[in-house]
User: Fold Alanine acetyltransferase from Mesobacillus campisalis.
Amino acid sequence: MFALRVDQEIELQLFQPHHAAELYWLIDTNRLYLREWLPWVDNMTSPADYQSIIPMWLKQFADNNGFNAGIRYKGHLAGTISLHQIDWRNSQSSIGYYLALHAQGKGIMTRSVQAVLNHAFHDLNLNRVEIRCGAGNKKSRAIPERLGFMQEGWIRDGENLYGAFHDLVVYGMLSREWANRAVK
Amino acid sequence: MFALRVDQEIELQLFQPHHAAELYWLIDTNRLYLREWLPWVDNMTSPADYQSIIPMWLKQFADNNGFNAGIRYKGHLAGTISLHQIDWRNSQSSIGYYLALHAQGKGIMTRSVQAVLNHAFHDLNLNRVEIRCGAGNKKSRAIPERLGFMQEGWIRDGENLYGAFHDLVVYGMLSREWANRAVK
Amino acid sequence: MFALRVDQEIELQLFQPHHAAELYWLIDTNRLYLREWLPWVDNMTSPADYQSIIPMWLKQFADNNGFNAGIRYKGHLAGTISLHQIDWRNSQSSIGYYLALHAQGKGIMTRSVQAVLNHAFHDLNLNRVEIRCGAGNKKSRAIPERLGFMQEGWIRDGENLYGAFHDLVVYGMLSREWANRAVK
Amino acid sequence: MFALRVDQEIELQLFQPHHAAELYWLIDTNRLYLREWLPWVDNMTSPADYQSIIPMWLKQFADNNGFNAGIRYKGHLAGTISLHQIDWRNSQSSIGYYLALHAQGKGIMTRSVQAVLNHAFHDLNLNRVEIRCGAGNKKSRAIPERLGFMQEGWIRDGENLYGAFHDLVVYGMLSREWANRAVK
Amino acid sequence: MFALRVDQEIELQLFQPHHAAELYWLIDTNRLYLREWLPWVDNMTSPADYQSIIPMWLKQFADNNGFNAGIRYKGHLAGTISLHQIDWRNSQSSIGYYLALHAQGKGIMTRSVQAVLNHAFHDLNLNRVEIRCGAGNKKSRAIPERLGFMQEGWIRDGENLYGAFHDLVVYGMLSREWANRAVK
Amino acid sequence: MFALRVDQEIELQLFQPHHAAELYWLIDTNRLYLREWLPWVDNMTSPADYQSIIPMWLKQFADNNGFNAGIRYKGHLAGTISLHQIDWRNSQSSIGYYLALHAQGKGIMTRSVQAVLNHAFHDLNLNRVEIRCGAGNKKSRAIPERLGFMQEGWIRDGENLYGAFHDLVVYGMLSREWANRAVK
Assistant:
């Protein structure tokens, strides 16, 4: 219900407990697609799992430590986007996201990440935002690359995905770069 | 940033820590006007007071126990509205609100309360919403009366206002009444 | 063991964990009678339920936030009486109570509530005490009416009783009224 | 207000926050007398100290872990008595106490300790109760000796009293001994 | 891994979670021998029990409130030694220990207790250290007697051992005694 | 007192509260040297600062989440080394360290990091260990380079050092690499 409006089609809605069933449905109907790159998909076996996770997300939000939001495209839940734990001492945070298969190819995620970057740099005054993608996850890596992030690192064995380690690519965007880019 | 949109002019924005200064400014520039009926106005002596209160409001929101939102009218902070602690066992809660002097007379509060009622009855599935007003506070009492609440009680000495007790009037709206009213 | 003495026959004894079995027995032998107006009776299915509730009551007492006491009539547990959460800012609280069927008609509850009112107004310095009764609960309503409380409200659908909402009547007594009454 | 009645003259009243001033007055008017054997007397410099200690005592009581009570003699606060932390695994606890100078010589403490022993052995089902006294504190040691405790130990340097260590004498009473004694 | 070195053969290693299986094995292979004097042996039924106990021990250590260490003799776990809760106000604590049957007779425990006494008196600046032994536990009592502790008490029914109470003997060592002894 | 022995000259000693003064002295006598690359040096203004930090380090250790240890060279405190928060899901952690000026050039840090790597890979079974150094901090970067870490990233504006952001270099070592290296 409480949402950050991206544009006429998209809004990013803070997850509240009454969204648990809808969010579970999104995961459950995209399970095979999402589990290729998301390590926690198999842990989600019923809406009740989100009944306990959503309050933790809201607690994180209440601690001024990022948020987890549903991406609503024309009113329907199409994916999620999060601003992870904020390192206030060093003015940085990172963004995570995923989109249902049927919602691909409409620029939804690019527009959503832009909105979160604006929020991070303007409202929260952060200096740097990071995105980490599986090295082989082309769709995910296309987002920061399209938005002008710089590739800053390649973390070997950075993530355990269902028992096997794979590499992560680190992308960074600085506040001053985003400001200059916006000017263009 | 995360907001419930009421209509083209109004949105109800969850308070986050970076809103502390703006909220304090609203109180400080309406101090004499607001303190007539709000018992806590004198306690607010600097933006730092809201730096510690806003996280408690967000904690309450994270506990699925209501919210505190700024009323933005054409983008500017004009007042606040809250859904207080929720009595889930009995499916009820209460609404509190105030508006800056300069924003009076535009129907802002009536529209905002309507939106919160819709949220309470539809999203949260509550059965009853209460509003309590100072018995002598005509402007505040006009809201529930205009919206069709029933006057259910008159609590003698219900509130301590700067050392003196005054009476509170209790208004109630039931889910089925709101549904019927909305149909008209 | 720690008790507030009402008179030669009655004392109000703070519940401690070793009272769990006795309190459960009271509920269990009055189950049909009590569940007509008490929404939690069906939840009490063994003494163990009170093993976990009594510490919460004592925690509330330790927080200076009311108490839960057994009403002992000639040494035997006959009912309970509680001073609910205290609203210290507004100097008010409310009283709840029930009595076993066999202990009715002896003035036990009237005397017990009087003692709690004395405690609330004299020891705790409260300004107002409220009693809420089911609108159809004649026995319960007779207590505040006999003691001179004023009927201040009628809350529609105020309580969920085993799936159905019913109305609550609100009674209020002010400190100055109680003082004057005591003089007579 | 909630009290354990010892006899017609004495009751042991659970300390609540509204007793802070009275308890401080007791300490303050007996300061020189009490500090000879009580290590914490100098720390008590205003009623506010008890405002923060009493809630901790009540928390301990709520945790089923003993109590702190004022000894009221003919209605007036004359001293305190406590059942310390309870070792439930081994069914034992210890008792501590002190009496104002003016209340000495009336058997008040002997009767109070008897009542606490009855509570400990009968209500709480403990097997053993200990009393520890300063080795040179004759008045204090007279209590367990008069009540038939056995001297079980002499702890060298058992307590730090204002910078100097002194010895403690350990007295023990078992449930079966108390039962036999009560028979006589 | 983090260990206090006693001498060339012995070190006292802080228990960490990855030691749970090894510690359980020690108990399990000495079960009959250890349960004669240790009341908790029967509660240990799988390594998982230590998975939850070891973090509590470490929490106690983090609170500057003693420690629990494995006694490693020539690299192998042979027993445990602990410095229990510390009474900082009175500068005292107590030591507990046990040794596997096969490791008896090598002076392991005497040397280990010496090292803990040095730590307690020199690093932690305690004034008194206590050891409590079952009155009939000759092997255990031999340690403080050999090290020059003074027998200070005999606590009747001091401990509940699988349903039966037995007596405890209290031994004490003072900092100044240990210093003098060390000089010899 | 509890220490991980590196070799005959060096041990890594868990910080306990009684080390606060010694650790402060280390910082205070190396203040100018250390503050060039450590962002928190100016916050340390008295031993009391470490009195509150050390318990938090121990709490982290108790949570199985890394440690903070003093590097003792021939018995004297020469620097510190820490294993930071552990990401158990992905089996990785990071190491931080600093050395006093006078202790440079003896291979102390290289040997200490080797010992922590052995602990991380063998005792804790981690898969990856990271070291992050200021891009301009040659001495610090020499450690992972000498030990065969791979440079995996260059994080622009990765750290705020007294008001100015500077870049961090990320080095990574995998368990299998360390095992192979050790064989040589």
Observations:
- Chain F has one domain: 3-183.
